[in-house]
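okkk here we go again. third time trying to get the zinc ion bound version out, last two times i messed up the smiles copy paste (missing a bracket lol). double checked this time i swear
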Amino acid sequence: MLFRKIVVACAVLCCVVGISCQKADNTPSTGETHKIRVVASLFPLYDFIKNVGKDRVAVELLLTPGVEPHSFEPKPADVLNLHHADVFVYTNKYMEPWVADIIKGIDNNKTLILDSSKGIVFINNEDEDHEGGHHEKEHGHAGMDPHIWLDLGNAVVMVDTIRDGLTQKDPAGKEYYQKNAEQYKAVLKDLDDKFRQGLSKCTKRTFINGGHLAFGYLAKRYGLTYVSAYGFSPDAEPTPGQLVKISRLLKEQGLKYIFYEELLAPRVAETLARETGAQLLFLHGAHNISKEEFGKGVSFAGLMEKNLENLEQGLQCR
Ligand SMILES: [Zn+2]
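finally!!
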């Protein structure tokens, strides 16, 4: 009797705090309950996990579609959700600095915590010549560029880390995860080849983003120069000096296009376009997707294909 009271109290509490009430009841288990529960912080990880885990995992995106990721702070319900996950995958400590505090309270035996940047060399912006100038040491990033997924070589390494994490939590699925990871890595490698080929013969080698410093990895991988109006995070407004510099660069290099990005109003890109006569083109940083994109079931690879098309147009590669 006492036991039942405790279970009921727990179920009520779980419902109140927003966790699935089904977990506390005794209904017969379905195929669904055998899946391992994986929570991903950002969209690329969510998509990688779906591709590797397929039918053996139930994956959730921690950031609701449409939420700006750099200023994201988890709510108590998010934290509780992580406590109930089998695996939590985050991008890296520069992208999600809030993870350090949260994982202190998580039971390592229950929830496997995966840092997707394992084995990846970060771009240290203090070492790079980004022409942007003012981007150093903002938001405690200490110059480290958090946008590792925009290098398709890094994406392959991240997929391996996810495969190993899922296997550790669910050893019976080892071969399944291995096979899926190989298939998905072939898609990423094919995409990487397309980028390399598509961007090899461009008239222009500099691309300018009216948004934030998200595409440094992509630029480095394909030998391009990248300049952005904002720094690593779109929170801090660009300085007037930075805008003058970019406007001058657009004119000097005769660039016909300026890029803007997802989840940030293209105000700065529009101003620069107006001033210089350049046209606007979209680039998706893929941190997170909109509700509409989520509804359409967009994929990371699909977003990157579209990015390549727009880069080829913007840099006059055809
Ligand atoms: Zn970003």
